[in-house]
Structures are given as structure tokens and as C-alpha cells.
Design goal:
The chain is built from eight helices and 14 strands. It is an alpha/beta fold. α4 packs parallel to α5. The strands form three sheets. Strands 10-9-8-11-12-14-13 form a seven-stranded mixed β-sheet, with helices on both faces. The protein has a four-stranded antiparallel β-sheet with strand order 2-3-1-4, covered by helices on one side. The protein has a three-stranded mixed β-sheet with strand order 5-6-7, with helices on one face. It has two domains: 72 residues, Alpha-Beta Plaits (2-Layer Sandwich), CATH 3.30.70; 211 residues, 3-Layer(aba) Sandwich (Rossmann fold).
């Protein structure tokens, strides 16, 4: 998959101006960021980058006397995660808020917590990430995992939209879900999901597809839980398709966006017959839980 590298220069460059510009760039389709001395380096899939939205955001930047320029170029076609994949990541623990001792330990198979043998109730999820998002290190992934941990998933049919490494679907299956379908526009991610499903011995219950939300046209209203950890603009565009494949009284869990995006997403969800039930926040990031109130008769074209 081809990416753009967008070098954003901010004057004056402060924590506040950098944070705001990062949020605005995310709205324009950017999905990964690095702080630089003069601003931010952003990365976006070429097919998803909205240059008009970027220009409008800069023109309406909310802090006066701030100068912002940017340069777009094709990112080098290489494995950006190579060093990270070699080094791995430290284990992440997610605990149940009911305090019944249940928990999830997400690890790379090489860095195991020393006391894992003393946590018989903890569910172990091993993630071997190759060019895919979703190791549990990001706030949005952890919030969705925590939400799943507090649900009764026994026998549920799960859809994982933008599956990345497959971590969310694998988590749901290990928590009792019956089956999971995951899809991702990135072929690397779809393959990585299959790989991690094998590692976690849930491959017989997980189907991984390569494509965008149009792959859902082959499915009816059959999913009990839909998971989507994607940026705000894609969530807004794809939410009608999510609703079209949700069974009556099913649950939609969204993340991948900032707290100040919640009102916009909730408004869209209400238009589609969804009821807001809960939210989580971690830093600037948010996670929303919505329930389908009734089966919609008309599916989007």
C-alpha cells in the first residue's frame, strides 16, 4: 500500500499547536505521526489523504498568529516497522472493571510478564505484528479490549472493521465469541490477522478479508458485535454499512478518534437508529458503545 509522507512546519511550534495540528491532520486522513523539531511528520494512505480538508483546517487554525506550511511526498516503500518488529513490545495488561480477577495480557511472545504463571484467570493474546496496527500499546486498542472484557460474548458473532493485526477479533474470540469476520483495506493487515489467528489457535473461527467496507455487501444483518477502531472520517462514511449488517439489539464499539469528535459521531449514530450507552476516554482519545434499537429494513447501496 502506498503512503504519503507529509512534513508539517508550525511557527511557533509548541505542544498546543502541534497537538491541534495532529488532530486536524487525522481528520484529513493521516493515521501516523512523529513529532519533529519544527512540527509534525504525518503519514497517510494515498487513497485516503484529503488535501482540501488539510488546507481548510490550516486556513481555519484556531490559534492566531500561527503559520503552518506542509510538503507532501511519496513515502519510501519499505517496512517502516522493521526495527519495531525486531525489538517487540512490553506486555500490556487490561483488567476487568468488575474486579473479578479476569484480565487480558497482550504480548509479543518474547516479552512475557514474570508473574504470568500466577494469573490463571488472565487471557493470553500473542501478537506478531507485521506492517499492521494493533498491539495493545495504543490507547484506542486498550479501551476496546477493556470494553470487550466487561461484556458477555458467549456465542456472539463479531465483525472487526479495519482489523489490523486482528487483535480485537482475537480478543473477542478468546472471551467466548463464537465467530469473527475481519476486514482491512491493507493486504498486509489481512494476512497478519490470519497469522495471529493461527498463533492464538482461533483460526478456525476467524475469517480475514482484504478490502474496504464494500466487502460487507455479501453479509446480512447477522453480527451481534461490531468493532471499528478507525479514524473519524472513515467511521462517519462507513457507519451506515456497519448498521446494515448488525443484528437486532446488537452492539457497535467505536474508537480511533478524539474526545471532541464524540458529539459528531453520536449524532450520526442516532440518525441510523443507534442508541449511545457508554463512553471511555484515555488521554485525548475516546471509545463509544452504541446499541442498535431496531432492525433497519433498508440497506445502503
Amino acid at each position: 500500500m502506498k503512503y504519503y509522507e507529509i512534513e508539517i512546519t508550525i511557527k511557533p511550534c509548541t505542544d498546543a499547536t502541534r497537538a491541534i495540528m495532529t488532530a486536524l491532520a487525522a481528520d484529513a486522513g493521516c493515521e501516523a505521526f512523529e513529532d519533529t523539531k519544527t512540527g509534525v511528520m504525518a503519514y497517510a494512505q494515498q487513497a485516503l489523504f484529503d488535501q482540501q480538508a488539510m488546507d481548510e483546517s490550516i486556513n481555519g487554525f484556531p490559534i492566531d498568529d500561527t503559520s503552518i506550511t506542509y510538503e507532501v511526498r511519496e513515502a519510501e516503500d519499505k517496512d517502516w516497522n522493521e526495527q519495531w518488529e525486531q525489538e517487540g513490545f512490553e506486555p500490556i495488561e487490561v483488567r476487568c472493571k468488575k474486579d473479578d480477577g479476569r484480565g487480558i495480557i497482550i504480548h509479543d511472545g518474547r516479552h512475557l510478564p514474570s508473574d504470568i504463571s500466577h494469573q490463571p484467570s488472565a487471557i493470553s493474546i500473542e501478537i506478531d505484528a507485521h506492517l499492521a496496527f494493533g498491539t495493545g500499546t495504543h490507547e484506542t486498542t486498550r479501551m476496546i479490549c477493556a470494553t470487550l472484557l466487561d461484556m458477555d460474548l458467549k456465542g456472539k458473532r463479531v465483525l472487526d472493521c479495519g482489523c489490523g493485526t486482528g487483535i480485537l477479533g482475537i480478543c473477542a474470540l478468546k472471551l467466548g465469541a463464537d465467530s469473527c469476520v475481519g476486514y482491512d483495506i491493507d493486504e498486509w493487515s489481512a494476512d497478519n490477522t490470519r497469522h495471529n489467528a493461527v498463533i492464538n489457535q482461533v483460526d478456525s473461527r476467524l475469517t480475514s478479508l482484504c478490502g474496504d467496507s464494500s466487502v460487507l455487501s455479501d453479509y446480512g444483518a447477522e453480527f451481534d458485535v461490531v468493532l471499528a477502531n478507525i479514524n473519524r472520517n472513515i467511521l462517519l462514511a462507513d457507519m451506515p454499512r456497519f448498521v446494515s449488517v448488525m443484528a437486532p439489539h446488537s452492539t457497535l464499539i467505536l474508537s480511533g478518534f478524539y474526545q471532541n469528535d464524540c458529539a459528531l459521531l453520536e449524532s450520526k449514530a442516532q440518525q441510523l437508529g443507534l442508541k449511545f450507552t457508554a463512553t471511555k476516554t484515555d488521554g485525548d482519545w475516546a471509545c463509544m458503545v452504541l446499541v442498535k434499537k431496531s432492525l433497519l429494513s433498508k440497506r445502503p447501496s
